[in-house]
Write a structure and sequence with these properties.
about 575 residues; alpha/beta; Rossmann fold; 3 domains; ten-stranded mixed β-sheet; about 25% helix; about 20% strand; elongated; P-loop_NTPase; T4SS_component; ATPase
Length: about 575
């Protein structure tokens, strides 16, 4: 054996345990070790076929005293009274056999730690023409995803599960986007977009600023993965307008510039049939008041006309500048005997109409700040991914009903825009708390949009990156359509659910102990999920970590206090050539 082989030998295939083509055990050499997730390789000569190579990943390691019969023997062995020796056995799950002749590894065969080309073959990296780095394995070497299973070529969508605040789901999803955009796996990355909904604080409003904690070690970790340790270059940030403020100032506190306010005008609400998204938390589509929703939405589209330049509308002859005024008009029309048939339906009963009215009026507090005709309208308040690569929509200050409305309307609009534009670019949609928007039971407009993305988005170029605390509470069709499944820290009860059947038993237990930054990544080509650690974000994750706001986005705020010319791009300032225009 040459020196390289001698330094990588870790043991031999155990003869005391059954070896199968799919699982075998390794007796570890006293001077070596194996840990969970290590990659190993062993070879066997077959008559007439030649060498067959079996690759595998360590799923369990046990140690015991050989020669001991009782628990107390450990003290005698330690004192040298009873002869025995320590033996460690590693269980290996086979990942690949080359050539495909599924025979068990032969007991006594040398087992080596897989390195270089052997490791790449064991984990199918040699078959990945477009590799997306997702972190470093337990051996300190890069682990990759196959871009074919992310961009719709052979599959699409990502499901990330884990305990809130510990599993670092959002951080990993952003790192994945950074790797996709900057890692070179996507030939036309400048045409790809990301739509990110921020539902927990203002942490995502600093993706364009370097992290003050960025040091040489962190830069080296990114370099090892083939990625720059830099923040996102082309970004746009949106937040709802501040309540009771008539200037359109965005409702944020940590970042005072570079954020634009968004809302929908009364005229737009009527013309674009947005009423169903007011009822995005509908329990069951069989409820008869849902028929009233669509009837009223139709009347609003037909019987409304824009009034002025501030987004107000004349609805059936009544001027509406606020959402409350619009609600009053609708309630009056569906209860008035002369207009009820046209607005609510000729055979709709009073009970059904009252159920609709109760739900509509209960939406006033949540949506009055988002649907309005009393602010000076301008194109920049419209949510769109067209002018930047990464678009962050901050909705954490909104109540749950308003969050549902924003997510539903935005996803539907972006999906329709992408479908109309045709192939030629990708839209990655990152949504946290997916179990809230697409629960396993019931139906709603938002859930239908998400199901459409999960089932048809691959052909449209719309890719869903969904994160949730509990995959068991998310619509099955969304989870099952996700080619890539990622798990962080899990609750013990959740880990036992069948949705995590792709994890080996040992990884289910480990998932309850996983530290922040450790994820278990499952993809179609590799039969065993791989544990990875991803580096600390190179972008600021909170105000205290943020450096100066980049000039390219510093003037995006619609607040009157901001400099309207601060966002003017300089020549060559945006590497993607799509700096958002100032306003």
């Amino acid at each position: 054996m040459d020196q390289e082989t001698l330094t990588t030998v870790v043991g031999r295939v155990a003869g005391t345990e059954d070896s199968t083509p799919l699982q075998f055990c390794v007796a570890i050499d006293p001077d070596a070790y194996l840990q969970l997730d290590d990659v190993v390789v062993t070879r066997r000569e077959l008559p007439g076929l030649g060498e067959v190579t079996s690759y595998g990943v360590v799923t369990q390691v046990t140690a015991r005293h050989e020669g001991a019969s009782f628990g107390s023997d450990v003290f005698l062995i330690s004192d040298g009274v009873l002869p025995a020796q320590v033996q460690e056995i590693a269980e290996i799950a086979t990942t690949r056999v080359e050539p495909e002749c599924y025979v068990p590894p032969k007991p006594g065969s040398v087992v080596e730690r897989a390195k270089g080309e052997d490791r790449a073959q064991a984990l199918y990296f040699d078959n990945m023409t477009r590799q997306v780095a997702v972190g470093l394995g337990r051996d300190g070497e890069p682990v990759y995803l196959n871009m074919d299973f992310l961009d719709g070529t052979r599959g699409a969508h990502v499901s990330i599960s884990g305990v809130s605040g510990v599993a670092t789901k959002t951080s990993f999803a952003l790192f994945l986007l950074h790797s996709i955009f900057r890692g070179g796996a996507l030939p036309n990355a400048h045409n790809a977009k990301a739509l990110v909904f921020s539902v927990k604080g203002e942490d995502l409003l600093f993706l364009d600023t370097p992290n003050k904690a960025l040091d040489e070690k962190l830069k080296a970790d990114y370099a090892k993965l083939g990625l720059p340790a830099e923040p996102f270059a082309s970004t746009g940030f949106f937040a709802p307008p501040t309540p009771s403020d008539t200037t359109g100032k965005p409702y944020v506190t940590g970042r005072t510039s570079g954020v634009g306010a968004f809302w929908w005008t009364i005229a737009e609400f009527c013309a674009k049939d947005l009423l169903p998204y007011v009822f995005a938390d509908a329990e069951d589509e069989r409820n008869q008041y849902t028929m009233v929703i669509h009837q009223v939405a139709n009347r609003l589209r037909l019987d409304s006309t824009p009034a002025g330049k501030d987004g107000a509308a004349n609805v059936d002859g009544v001027l509406c500048r606020t959402y409350a005024e619009l609600v009053d008009v609708v309630c009056d029309r569906v209860t008035d005997e002369e207009t009820r048939a046209n607005w609510a339906g000729a055979v709709t009963g009073a009970g059904t109409v009252n159920a609709f009215i109760r739900r509509l009026r209960s939406s006033q507090r949540a949506l009055s700040g988002l649907i309005r005709g009393d602010l000076a309208d301008h194109p920049a308040r419209q949510l769109s991914t067209e002018n930047q690569q990464v678009t962050v929509v901050d909705i954490h200050n909104l109540v749950e009903r308003a969050q549902r409305f924003v997510v539903g309307v935005t996803l539907a609009a972006e999906t329709a825009r992408k479908e109309a534009a045709g192939p030629g670019g990708l839209l990655f949609t990152m949504l946290d708390e997916l179990n809230k928007y697409a629960p396993r039971e019931g139906s709603s407009p938002i859930k239908e949009v998400l199901l459409d993305i999960a089932e048809r988005g691959r052909s449209l170029g719309v890719i869903l990156i969904g994160a949730q605390q509990t995959a068991s509470e998310v619509e099955r069709r969304i989870v099952s359509n996700s080619s890539v499944r990622i798990v962080g820290r899990l609750d013990a009860a959740e880990a036992s659910r069948p949705e995590y059947g792709f994890l080996p038993a040992s990884q289910r237990v480990r998932a309850t102990l996983a530290t922040p930054g450790t994820m278990f990544v499952s993809q179609p080509e590799i039969p065993v999920p791989i544990a990875v650690g991803f580096p600390f974000p190179a972008w600021a994750t909170r105000l205290s970590e943020a450096g100066p706001i980049p000039a390219a986005t510093a003037g995006l705020s619609t607040s009157k206090k901001s400099d309207p010319f601060a966002g003017l791009p300089s020549r060559g300032s945006d590497p993607f050539g799509d700096d958002p225009p100032p306003f």
